[in-house]
Specification:
By secondary structure, this protein is of the alpha+beta class. It has a domain at 28-62 and 386-417 and 498-677: Collagenase (Catalytic Domain). It is built from 27 helices and 12 strands. It has helices at residues 29-33, 51-62, 74-95, 104-116, 118-124, 130-137, 145-154, 197-216, 221-240, 245-248, 260-266, 272-279, 291-303, 306-321, 327-342, 350-374, 377-399, 406-417, 442-458, 506-523, 544-562, 578-595, 599-603, 612-624, 630-639, 645-653, 657-663; strands spanning 19-20, 71-73, 161-167, 175-181, 256-259, 285-288, 420-424, 480-482, 487-491, 565-567, 570-571, 626-628. It has a 4-stranded mixed sheet with strand order 1-8-9-7, with helices on one face. Helix 8 (197-216) packs antiparallel against helix 15 (327-342). It is globular and about 75 Å long. Bound molecules: zinc ion (ZN). Zinc ion is lined by residues 19-21, 519, 523, 580, 583. Zinc ion (ZN) binds next to strand 1, helix 20 and helix 22.
């Protein structure tokens, strides 16, 4: 999935544990039609020294990043193409005011119309949040804090911590309640505490940003600066009791089922019973993802003064609603999150931002119309065929595995045999019947969406899971594996060139989409996914010996990726990106094996001067051709479980004998790990 996304307006806690493909393409016209454009190449570079540069160096030179983007590559190009399709849909919906009330087009149209009414939004300034600011001012004592948090929660705004309903990871046929750490405005907990230059700079700019925002609600400069310092203190306290991103990857340590009574022992200064009563949920147990956070929270709650909590709530309101207010707020927010943190030069045009808002608010309503226009049934059929070939290839890989015992292999095959597959769009669309949208103001519509989404999520508590549900909208250019559902999902958005090209040869499609599918399958057997069984429950099905062997192999991949320098002194974090790197290495391996069964591979006829085997790897490089801003890369290595594009292309290939053979890579070449460092897992 994408790198860090900033807290959206009234963020809803989403508890779907999914592992995605993207945390981030390409354009002699004849070769382009065949699926790989020869102009992408940079033949001045040897494929044995830097395959990424060789395969897509030409593309990288010829495709600078547009000013409103922080990175530019296959994913973003496709997203931009999608935006054009989506724009047409939302504009047509908004142009008509006589849709049947409650229909998809009425909701999309009215929402988009209010979102695009910049004259009205400008005129309102920060008026929409004035009632909320007043509510904060009206809090009289600390004994009223729990009530405030509960009321805000119902309105869709999780303060300080996250609460929500998701699949019980140890009883995966029902939904359970989860509590998780939260409350931070910076994209990573370590930015609050680390002493490196970038972390310090981020803290400094963040405090300034908070102060600037307070000035926008007519707080004088001096007070605004003081407020910012006090808010930073509160957030730092929360950061210190929070898990790191790496710790949060562990599904076992982040599964702590607790009776509500015990929760009160964990954070004694917080009235949990009252909180849950007020939000109207009735349950005996809750799964605490970070006990460290909740055991520290009681003390933080006590230490922070009422006035500081109030300032903190105001800040949370400001940052979560800024993009729904007038341009002063939007620009100030962009200066920090867009320009400073990710290096964008200019704000995206309003229509693009508002399409994202429609996507985030009612993705499947928009998706229904989208797929009817862009996703032919034939595309679904061909994709299904490739997925089936990939699953079969993974089965062969497990059977012929040299390091696992028969017992563990048997369990792995049971798990693989129950994989669910979803392609294109849901068989049953999400029900938006209870969501009311009016053509009044953008802010009100966002509030309606937030309230509805919270209610919709809470209604699942204790209920059996809905197997038809999707974790991504069909227009999303991404894919995921859900460990608790044990299923792989490929939205229509990613089933397009350069990932999946109906006109291209198999080599290109297996190198691109095949490897993406293999990547998602491999997530079921990566360092975390392997901790779940065939039903999606956390259960250890590994023998001790096989577990140790897996760890040994994984360690080599961590070490390899730890050596990669991304920008300046910023390196890839091998441990944080391990699951994704296993996914890429496994995905390429099983996809190449599946490709070997095709007619094209067997005939071995060159296309545009390249053998089918070579084209497979060119297809892989092509989907990751990317330009990214230094700021975005620095943020990515800190916050994203996906390695940057260059390393995603080269890192796994350094271990693949099929790649060495294809491009004559010799021992000692850059693109080939020495024999003692070669990694093979799947
Ligand atoms: Zn992934």
């Amino acid at each position: 999935m994408k790198s860090f996304s900033f807290k959206p307006f009234f963020a809803i806690l989403v508890l779907s544990f999914t592992l995605t493909i993207f945390g981030a393409v390409p354009g002699d016209d004849e070769s382009k039609k065949r699926g790989f454009d020869l102009q992408n190449l940079d033949k001045s570079v040897s494929p044995a020294q830097d395959f990424y540069k060789y395969a897509v160096g030409g593309w990288v030179k010829n495709n600078p990043i547009p000013d409103d983007q922080t990175r530019w590559g296959a994913f973003t190009v496709l997203q931009e193409d999608n935006n054009k399709v989506l724009r047409k849909i939302v504009e047509e919906a908004a142009a008509n005011q006589s849709w049947v009330k409650g229909s998809a087009k009425q909701k999309i149209g009215d929402f988009y119309a209010t979102a695009m009414d910049s004259v009205r939004i400008e005129k309102l300034g920060y008026k929409p949040i004035v009632p909320e600011l007043q509510k904060i001012d009206a809090i009289k004592g600390k004994n009223e804090l729990v009530k405030h948090l509960a009321t805000q929660y119902i309105n869709g705004n999780s303060l300080i911590f996250g609460f929500g309903v998701g699949i019980d990871a140890k009883k995966s046929d029902v939904n359970a309640a989860y509590l998780s750490q939260g409350g931070l405005g910076l994209p990573d907990v370590e930015y609050y505490t680390k002493e490196d230059a970038r972390s310090k700079e981020i803290r400094e700019k963040y405090v300034q940003h908070i102060a600037n925002m307070f000035q926008l609600i007519d707080v004088d400069k001096e007070t605004a600066s003081k407020n910012a310092e006090r808010i930073m203190d509160v957030e730092t306290k929360l950061a210190k009791i929070s898990n790191t991103r790496l710790e949060n990857r562990d599904p076992i340590k982040t599964y702590n089922k607790m009776a509500i009574d015990n929760l009160s022992n964990l954070s004694p200064n917080f009235d949990w019973k009252k909180y849950f009563d007020l939000i109207g949920v009735n349950m005996n147990v809750v799964i605490v993802r970070q006990p460290k956070f909740f055991s520290g929270l009681g003390q933080v709650f006590e230490e922070v003064s009422l006035d500081d909590w109030k300032l903190y709530f105001k800040w949370d309101l400001l940052r979560s609603s800024a993009n729904a207010l007038s341009s002063a707020f939007v620009n100030e927010r962009f200066n920090f999150t867009g320009k400073f943190l990710t290096g964008a030069k200019v704000l995206q045009p309003r229509w693009k931002r508002m399409i994202q808002a429609v996507n985030g608010s009612m993705g499947e309503l928009l998706g229904q119309i989208y797929v009817s226009e862009v996703f032919p049934p034939e595309a679904k059929e061909r994709a299904k065929g490739i997925v089936a070939n990939l699953l079969a290839s993974m089965g062969e890989s497990i059977k012929s595995n040299q390091w696992m015992s028969d017992d563990t292999k048997k369990q792995a095959l049971v798990k693989l045999g129950t994989f669910g597959v979803k392609i294109g769009y849901p068989d049953k669309w999400k029900d938006y019947g209870e969501l009311n949208i009016e053509r009044d103001t953008y802010y009100k519509n966002l509030e309606r969406v937030s309230i509805w989404a919270t209610k919709d999520n809470l209604a699942k508590l204790g209920k059996p899971i809905d197997p038809t549900e999707w974790g991504m909208s069909p227009q999303t250019v991404n894919a995921y594996y859900s460990p608790t559902r044990n299923e792989i999902v490929f939205p229509a958005g990613i089933l397009q060139p350069p990932f999946f090209n109906q006109k291209a040869d198999d080599a290109i499609n297996y190198g691109a989409m095949g490897a993406v599918i293999g990547h998602e399958i491999s997530h079921g057997f990566d360092d975390q996914g392997r901790k779940y069984d065939e039903k999606g429950n956390i259960r250890d099905w590994w023998t001790k010996e096989d577990n140790d062997k897996f760890q040994g192999r994984a360690k080599k991949l961590i070490d390899e990726f730890n050596t990669f320098v991304v920008v300046d002194t910023f390196k890839v974090n091998g441990a944080l990106t391990l699951g994704e790197n296993i996914g890429d290495l496994g995905g390429l391996t099983v996809s190449f094996n599946a490709f070997k069964n095709t007619e094209q591979f067997k005939k071995n006829e060159p296309v545009d001067g390249f053998t089918p085997q070579q084209r497979f790897f060119l297809g892989w490089a092509q989907v990751w051709a990317t330009n990214a801003r230094d700021e975005a890369l620095k943020l990515q290595v800190k916050t994203d479980v996906h390695s940057p594009s260059v390393q995603r292309v080269n890192g796994p290939l350094m271990n693949l004998p099929e790649f060495f053979e294809a491009f004559g890579v010799k021992p000692g070449d850059n693109m080939r790990n020495s024999d003692d460092k070669l990694v093979k897992i799947w």
